[in-house]
Amino acid sequence: MKPFGLMAAASLALATFVPTVPALAQVGTPSAVPAKSVTATSPDGSLVLTVAIDNDSRPVWSLSRKGKLLIAPSKLGFILTDGLNLVRGFTILGSQTASADSTWEQPWGERRFVRDHHNEVLVRLQQSPQQGGRLMNIRFRLFDDGIGFRYEMPQQSGLKTMHIADETTEFSIAPKGTAWWIPGGEWNRYEQVYQKTPIDAVSTAHTPITMRLDDGTHLAFHEAALVDYSGYWFKRADGQLFRTTLSPGSGGARVVRDLPFDTPWRTIRIADSAAGLVENDLELNLNEPNKLGDVSWVHPVRYIGIWWGMIRGDWTWAEGPRHGATTARTKQYMDFAAAHGFRGVLVEGWNRGWNGDWFGHGDEFSFTQATPDFDLDAVTKYGAKKGVHLIGHHETGGNIANYERHLEEAMALYQQHGVEVVKTGYVADGGGIIADSDRAGDPAGPLRMEWHDGQRQVEHHLAVVEAAARHHIAIDAHEPVKDTGLRRTYPNWVSREGARGMEYNAWGAFANGPDHEPTLVYTRMLSGPMDFTPGVLSLEGADHAPLASTLAKQLGLYLAIYSPIEMAADFIENLKAHPREMAFIEHVPTDWAESHLIAGEVGDYAIFARKDRNSEEWFVGGVNDASARDLTLTFDFLPAGKRYRMSVWKDGAGATYLTDARHRIAYDTVTIAKGDTYPLWLAPGGGAAMRLVPVD
Q: pTM for the full model?
C-alpha cells in the first residue's frame, strides 16, 4: 500500500486549490437601505433562495427548485438562557454576494478530485433597539446539488458571550414523501435500526436523514464542520415542519461561545436520483481546507484484528484464561496479515483496566501499561520485520476526563512503537460521558456527565485528533460524534463508527436485517467513511447465529460501505477456509480515484463502480436487501479503447440469507469493455464483487 505523498507540505497547507474557473471575489455590496428580502440562485439557476422578514419581524428563509417550492418559509434564530432571544425584531441591513468554482485534491477518499462550484450570499441582520440592537449574519452557499447555511455572529458591543439554549432553525418541507431515519437522543447513540416512514411520521431523528419526495426528488438533511458546538437533532414540530434541537449539555446552556464565532453549516443535499445524493460532496466543500500540512504519513489500510472473538464471547477483553490480547496470538495474526498483504492488526484489550466494571465510567483504564501476557515492544518489533503495524486501541468507557489526562503520553508511546492508526471507543449509555471529574484520584470528587454529541464531547474528539496528528497517528473513532466532513480539515480523522455495525450480527440471528446495509449507503454513509468491519466469511455470530447475508454480500460490503481503513473481521481460521474470497479481499483497495453508484435505490440495493487510485484497475459490486432482483449492469464508466479481464464473485443459484444456502457463491470470468453489459442476479440478502484488470 503506497503512502499518500501526493502533495508537498506547503501545497497541502493551502488545500491545493486548482481553479477551473477563476474564483470571483465579492461581487455585491451592502445595500444602502434596509431590504425586505434577499434572493440568490445556484450556479445553474435550479435552486432559488429567498431570505425575508415576516410580519412578526422574524427572519425566515425558503427554497424553490426548478420552479417548485421545496422549503416553505422557515424561521431562523436563537433562544438564549441569559437574555432576550435572537428571534424577533429583525431587519435586513444588507447583503453581499460571491461565487466560486475551483477543484481541490483529497489526500485520500472516494474520489481524488472534488469540484466546489457555488454561489454565496451573506445576509446581515440587526434587531431593533428594543430587542437589544444585536447583529446576526447568515451565510448561504448554493450548489447545483444542495445548500448549506450557517450563522455568523460578529463581534459587537453588549454581547460578549452567547449562552445558547437552542436554535430556532426550521425546515418546513413543502412536498409529501418518505423518510429513512433513526431516533435522535436515545440511549444507544446512533446504533439504531433505520425506519422507513412518511415524512410527517418522523419524531426526532439523527442526521443524516434521507427523504424521497413523491415527485422523485431526493433530499438528505445534515450538517457540516461541527466544531466547538453541539450536534443537532432533526425534530418534527408539526406536520412536515422540522426544527434543529441541539444536543444537551450538563449546564443550562447547550452551547457557550464567545463572539465572534460561526456555527456549523446546516445542509441539504438535493438530487433527482439516489445516485445524485451519493455522488455529492456538499459537506466536504463546506469544511475548511487541510490544516495539518503534509499528511503522507496517513496510510489507507486493510487490516485484521483480535476483535471478533471478544465480540462473540469466545475471548475476553479482561485478563484471565480466555484473554484475547496475548503476545502469542498477536504474532499469529501478524503472520497471517503479512502473508495476505494486510498492513495492520487491531488488538483490543492489550492494556490494563478491563478487569472491573468499566462500562460507562472507565476510571481504571491505563493507556500506557500492558497486561502481563502482552508485550507491546515485542509485538511491534515482530510486526515491523514483516511490514505489519499494530493498530492501537483506546477504550475510555466514556471517561474522557481520564483519557485526556493521559492522551499525550499515550499517543507518544504509540508513535514510539510504529502505530499508525488508533481506534478510540466511548462505550457508555446515552448521555453517559464523564467530562470533568477528579474521581480517578478522589472517589468523592465532582462528576459531570455529557452527551455523546454535545459541545463538550465535540471539543474532546477534536482534541484527540489534534494530539494524534502531532504524533503522526490517524484516528478511527467508535461511539463517536457524527461525521460532518472534518476529514477534509483533519485528514488523519480517517473513519468512524457512528451507526449500527457488524458487531450486532454476533448477538442474534439476522440482528441487522438484510436491508440494513443497503439503507446505510443512502443515510449514514452520506456523512463520511464508516468502519463497518465486513468480511465475516463464516456468516456466523455467537452460538452459530446466522448473518442476514450471503457470502457474496460480505465481499460486496467492501465496495458499498466506504472507509480508507477496511477490516476482514472474521477469525483468521475462517478467512483461511475461504481462499477464493480472500483473493478478492487481498486486492480490493481502500483508496479510490473515482466512485460511481451505477445502480441502486434508497434502502433496496446499491452497486458501485470504483477505480483504484494507484492502478488502472476497477472494482464493481455492492449489496442487496431481502428481495431477489435481476439487474443489467452497463459499463459506460470505463475508458474507451480498453478491455478488462473481469473476475466475478456473485450469489450462487438458489442463494438466500434465510437458510444455509447463504453460503452458495458462484464465480465467473469475462472480458468487458466500455458500453458492454453484464447480467447480475442478486439473492435475498445478497451481493456481488468484481475485479477488472486491464488486458490491453
A: 0.94
